[in-house]
Amino acid sequence: MNYQFSNRISKIKVNPLRANARKNMEHPDVISFAYGFPPEVAFPSKQLSEISQKLYDLENHETFLQYGPSEGHPEFLTALGKRLSSVVNVYDSDTDDLMVVSGSTQGMDLTVKAFCNEGDIVICEAQTFSGAVNSIRAYGAEPLAIPMKGETIDLDLVETALIADVDHKIKLIYLIPTFQNPLGTSMPLADRIRIYELAKTYGVMIFEDDPYGDLLYEGEPIPKIKSFDTEGLVIYSGSFSKILAPSTRVGFLVIPKMAYQMVLLGKQTSDSHTNQYWQLVAAKFMTDYDFEAHIEGLRELYKEKFMLMMSELDKISPDLMTYIRPAGGYFLCGKLSDALDTRRFYDYLIAHQVAVIPGNVMSVEQEGFDKYFRLNFTKPTLTEIRKGIKIISDALKVASISSSAEIFEQEAM
Ligand SMILES: Cc1ncc(COP(=O)(O)O)c(C=O)c1O
Questions:
Q1: Are 251 and 238 in contact (CB under 8 A)?
Q2: Domain Aminotransferase class I/classII large: where (predicted)?
Q3: Would you call 155 helix, strand, or coil by DSSP?
Q4: 243 alpha carbon – ligand 1 mean position (Å)
Q5: Which helix (H) or strand (E) holds 98?
Q6: Mutation pick for ligand 1 pocket among 129, 270, 376 (CB with most ligand atoms within 8 Å)
């Protein structure tokens, strides 16, 4: 058969993260800083099995085995709404509605589906979550990569792009303002206000992707962009993947009321509804257990790993690599000094069985960021962090010695 695939699907780039995820799981000897996985000890298995048992003991337990509403299970939406208005401060039931989605990946997909035509443009941080970039391309829209300036997308360049967009092709601004993936950075409040004002001035929606927002280890939380959305410009996206378990595939969107129905229509042609069982488990965890204490436990667990990784990295000379210290989340991003030989750096890591994510993978164009590498600090153990960062440190030295030798060779020629 000569398959004729759609232009839409042909534009999507193979995601090496997904392709390699299985391989990584099959190699226990590798110290992996690569994937954004929680460690197994983070799963509240005891509570989940208790909840599960109770759900099956309910007389009307067949209800969660039945088809359910696309918007979400009412019990889940009520529990979630309370948490989002009181703890996270991104939900006001007068102006917004909640929608469950099958992982926040689907939330981005549905948003692009609802707002973008083929040829439309979505502004993105140049280094960003590859899943979102693929969602944009899947609908024939184009991601416009704007470089970072410190911890924020370059706002002057965003403004320039918006001014130049006389045909109003820019429909969305996709941002991960808190504990960015891959950079670990957080946009300061003043920048959040400025980008919101830009969106308002130019009539563009913002998609605030926030799967890591609860995982703060240092300093004070920064208000979400959604918290000052008075104009219905921001769709806020959250997930239970990093605070409960990724396999639940329970994520959610906070959507301005006027936009809600169109996004919902998109969901109905996509999966009709999200897994009801896991919505109920998440709901019961929020109502019958101390969910905030569980999250506090995750913060403590990850903070110890985070602090260790920082202290190990701080032993490395800034002549070899630099990084911006995150305040929370799952990742940080190292940057090799310009003089270092990137290929030798990776060859050394592969030979010594340490896995990291090369910067180009987590970028819109999959090029231009070969000096960057992303490190996850939640999945590896403390021992693996110590051992793995030592190997990274050695790899940097090898990459620097070799490149100096090469320069010497070239100069001698
Ligand atoms: C920024 C960002 N958005 C969305 C996701 C996807 O999350 P989910 O598991 O809820 O689909 C991830 C996962 O790694 C992510 O890093």
A1: yes
A2: 47-389
A3: helix
A4: 12
A5: strand 96-102
A6: 129
Q: φ, ψ for residue 7 (rounded to 5)? A: -60, -40
Domains of the chain: 7-43+292-400 (3.90.1150.10), 64-289 (3.40.640.10)
Measured CA distances, 214 to 11, 22, 326 (Å): 34, 28, 14
Question: What does the DSSP assignment read for 188-250?
Answer: -HHHHHHHHHHHHHHT-EEEEE-TTTT-B-SSPPPPPGGGG--SS-EEEEEESTTTT-GGG-E
Sign of CA dihedral 207, 15, 299, 191: negative
Q: Say yes or no to pLDDT of 10 above 90.
A: no
Question: Using one digit for the tens of pLDDT, what is the confidence trace for 322-360?
Answer: 999 999 999 999 999 999 999 999 999 999 999 999 999
**Cα–Cα distance list, 55 to 59, 62, 65 (Å):** 9, 10, 11
48: pLDDT strictly greater than 70: yes
Angle formed by the axes of helices 291-313 and 276-288, to 10°? 90
Cα(105) to ligand 1 centroid in Å equals: 6
Structure confidence by residue, pLDDT tens digits, 369-390: 999 999 999 999 999 999 999 9
User: 56 phi and psi, to 5 degrees?
Assistant: -75, -25
